[in-house]
Each structure stands twice: as structure tokens, then as C-alpha cells.
Amino acid sequence: MKPQIVLSMALDRGQTERLLALQTMFAAACNHLAPLVQETRCWNRVALHHMAYRQLRERFPALGSQMACNVIYSVSRTCRALFQDRGSPYALHKLGQAPLSRVLFLPQSPVYFDRHTLSLKDGRVSMFTLDGRMRFQLRLDEREEAWFRGSRLREVVLSREGPRMSLAFTFDEASAATGASTADTADIPNSDMGPDPDAPPVTADLPDYVMIVDAASVPEPASAAASASGRISPSSTPSSRAAAPTR
Q: Residues 69, 75: contact at Cβ < 8 Å?
């Protein structure tokens, strides 16, 4: 498993509402794309981009171009874990000719960021929201600072567990072993950060931020949220620190 740092976010009410609005719209955009996966049995990220990018931009203009790409990545990643991993009970080879199930993304689904939607320089983070950038300073110990300076940042995920929101930073373990320079990673927009298309599936089990439903029984978002636990965990977390955002 690649090294990861998880930062709990100390948010005020306004900041929390901004991130909840982003998370809700991100999940809605994923659900807009899910029927296409069900109909075409295609969850390849590049193919989905060609089929769905334009309609996502038209339907969810507030997300912007890069977040639309991250929606496609999220759907592709989740469906690959569910339908392609041979250990999954929903694996395609087990379905035969039966219709593919619909994946329903719950309101607490994680939000993926890349170098266009989240930047980091001199310990200060600037991240995309629906109404402008949210900025805050990272609080890191020496070991965590070494990861940011000496390893390539591969992925950043915003997650929610009850009222608590956090950012998970995942690093490329190989770059740490070879000793990547500070100049390569001090400023995320100039690094190779972004969702890794070659990353392994999330899990062979059903992620706790999705439901599997038949097309005829897709619940409304409110009922889906009520039936969910609300628990999100991007993966195991070797380190967890607090971050204090400022508007």
C-alpha cells in the first residue's frame, strides 16, 4: 500500500457547508454517469471520458472541467473494483448475460482532487470549491514534511465520516525510495500529482459510499443517505494530523 497522510480539517460552519456542497454535487455527477456504465458495460476511464465528458460539463457546469474529469475517474475506479475484480461478488464474469447492476453513489462519496483542483506550496493548500478556492496551512511534523518534500504526491481525496472531514494525501512510494528532489514536489501544480490510472482497485468488497441497486429501484438521494452509515474511509491511514483552513 502506498504511503498516506490523513489530515483532519478544523472547519468553521461556512467552510463545512462549502465542502458539503462540493461533495453532494460530486456524488450527483457520479450518479449521472452510472446509468451509462450500466447500459454500456464500460467503465474504462478514457472511453467514459469520450462518451460522457460533454454531458457532464453541460449538466454540472459549476464543477468545472477538471472536476468533471475527476468524476469520471471516480466512477471508473469504483466500477472497476466492483465489476472487474474477480473477487468481487458483482464481478462481470459472474453475471454472464444478466444485466449489470446500477451503482448508486451516496452523498458522502469521496471527492478526488488533482494538481488542477488542489495546489500546495510552502505548506499552504489551495483547494477548489463551488464558490472559489479554500486556503489553509498544513500542520505537519518532521516526518510528514519529509514525505511532502521527498515523495511525489499521487492523489488527494476529500472524505467525510459523520461531521468530520479529512484530506488523504497518497504518495508514490517509488519516488521516496529514489529520493525525489524538493523542487519536484514543493509545488503540486508542477509535479506529477493526479489520480493514478494504473492504481489497483479500491477493494474487492462493496465500498461503504455506494449501493448496488436495480435500475427500477434507485432510491432518491435523501432515502439513500438515510439508509447509509455515513462512514467514509479512503484506506488505512498511517498518519493523521489536523489542518486549519482559512477562507
A: no
Report the candidate in 140, 210, 192, 134 with the shortest Cα–Cα distance to residue 165: 134
* Residues facing 125 on adjacent strands: 120, 136
The whole model's pTM is what? 0.77
pLDDT at 125 over 70: yes
| pLDDT higher than 70, residue 86 | yes
Neighbours of 138 (CB within 10 A): 20
What tens digit of pLDDT does each residue of 181-203 get? 333 333 333 334 444 444 444 44
- From residue 98, alpha-carbon distances to 39, 92, 119, 214 in Å are 12, 9, 44, 12
CB distance 171 to 153 below 8 Å:
yes
153 forms beta bridges with: 171
Alpha-helical runs (H) found in 45-172: 45-59, 64-83, 92-95, 142-150
The predicted model gives 32-37 an average pLDDT of: 94
Residues 65-84: pLDDT tens digits?
999 999 999 999 999 988 88
Are the C-beta atoms of residues 22 and 111 closer than 8 Å to each other? yes
Q: Which three cell numbers stand for residue 187?
A: 509545488
Q: Which residues contact 59 (CB under 8 A, 6 or more apart)?
A: 29, 32
